[in-house]
Design brief:
Blueprint: E1 2-10, E2 13-19, E3 24-28, H1 35-58, H2 68-76, H3 91-96, E4 100-106, E5 113-119, E6 135-140, E7 151-153, H4 165-171, H5 178-187, H6 197-211, E8 214-217, E9 223-227, E10 231-234, H7 240-253, E11 261-266, H8 274-289, E12 292-298, H9 301-313, E13 320-328, E14 331-337, H10 347-360
Parallel strand pairs: 3-12, 3-13, 7-11, 11-12
Antiparallel strand pairs: 1-2, 1-4, 4-5, 5-6, 8-9, 9-10, 13-14
Helix pairs in contact: 1-2, 6-7, 6-8, 8-9
């Protein structure tokens, strides 16, 4: 489990110390305030550690540390890590003296690590080989690595682009974030077997009910929905909301979201109607209770209320942390606590409440 993340000079964030809950962590804020950036920063560190673990097992002679620099570049799809460094009003000179720091701390302190990214200033004169735009990174490598691959669900579903996507990504420069490639690999993993099948079936039941069938992966690499009445339906013919349900169902069926690990979900409510959002909310809480540490970014009052209602009625033992993002001058400040009452007034949620009041005031 990730206990905390210390951030300095990451995009819109100047300096923050985030303390996470072992079950569910919800990041709330308006568009453009860095919800996805936080998710990606957390994910990139854990994913780089997991990559090092699995690579080390395959080839111990060649892999002795982790490449967090490449993972950050791929996950953010930035041309340079320099672009991730917080920009200030006195832009140029101060930016060259600004250092990006990410410090990850886990329950198991042997997994702790830190990365520092510093810009290299333009150097002129005989023998000079530095140039503006380059960075210097320092990585404090952990003593042991994360042993479970994290799952990142973007706002877009990936089932329809899955056929051939991973091989194309590996051989062609595509303008897609590395999270898409990582998740596509997990979607293609074989189904889990053995003693976990019963628990998987319990988690899948409400999802398959909402979808009207079960998800299958053909040898051709294409996903279909298998229904009792109409047979197989290809993914392209389903509503995007059902495809998103199918994506989470597949990851549960492969065991990627069972027992231990990490789930990152960017705006789960995107393109979903309220009925399906209710199913998603319960699934998030069920997954978090199986030992998966969940990180969700959202500005949906409906989803957040549904999570709160379910927690109060069915998941009282759940440990939750909320993070509210607030714009303060040229940076974003984070308020955090156990409930939404601890994170201040988030404008995106206030607008929903104000609209409800205006509607009720109509004659």
């Amino acid at each position: 489990m990730l206990k905390s993340l210390h951030i300095e000079n990451l995009t819109v964030f100047l300096k923050e110390d985030l303390e996470f809950g072992k079950n569910l962590n919800v990041i709330i804020g308006e568009n453009g305030l860095g919800k996805t950036h936080l998710l990606k920063a957390i994910y990139a560190g854990i994913a780089a550690s997991a990559d090092a673990h699995f690579n080390h097992l395959k080839s111990p002679a060649d892999h002795h540390d982790m490449d967090l620099q490449s993972k950050l570049s791929g996950v953010f799809r930035a041309e340079s890590l320099l672009n991730l460094i917080h920009r200030r009003k006195s832009e140029h000179k101060r930016r060259l003296n600004t250092k990006l720091t990410l410090c990850y701390q886990f329950d198991d302190s042997k997994q702790n690590f830190e990365i520092n990214v510093s810009p290299l200033a333009l150097v002129v004169g005989p023998g000079a080989n530095g140039r503006e735009g380059q960075v210097m990174t320092e990585l404090d490598v952990p003593q042991s690595f994360v042993e479970t691959r994290p799952v990142f669900l973007p706002t877009r579903e990936l089932l329809t682009i899955y056929p051939g996507f991973v091989s194309l990504y590996e051989t062609t420069h595509l303008p897609f974030e590395e999270t898409w490639r990582d998740t596509a690999i997990l979607l293609g993993a074989p189904l889990a077997k053995g003693e976990r099948e019963k628990r998987i079936a319990e988690l899948l039941q409400p999802l398959e009910k909402a979808m009207g069938g079960s998800l299958i992966l053909e040898e051709s690499g294409r996903f279909y929905l298998q229904t009792a009445n109409t047979g197989r339906i290809e993914m392209h013919l389903l509503a995007e909301g059902l495809r998103k349900l199918g994506m989470i169902a597949r990851l549960i069926a492969t065991g990627a979201l069972l027992d231990k690990g990490y789930l990152f979900w960017d705006e789960p409510e995107s393109n979903l109607n309220p009925k399906i959002i209710k199913t998603i909310a319960k699934t998030i809480l069920q997954i978090s209770m199986t030992g998966i540490q969940v990180f969700v970014a959202s500005h949906s009052l409906f989803l957040l209320r549904e999570l709160f209602i379910l927690q109060q009625n069915e998941f009282k033992e759940l440990e939750t942390r909320c993070f509210g993002l607030h714009l303060v001058k040229s940076r974003v400040s984070v308020m955090q606590g156990a409930t939404m009452e601890d994170i201040g007034d988030v404008a995106a949620l206030d607008e929903d409440l104000l609209q409800s009041e205006r509607y009720m005031d109509l004659p």
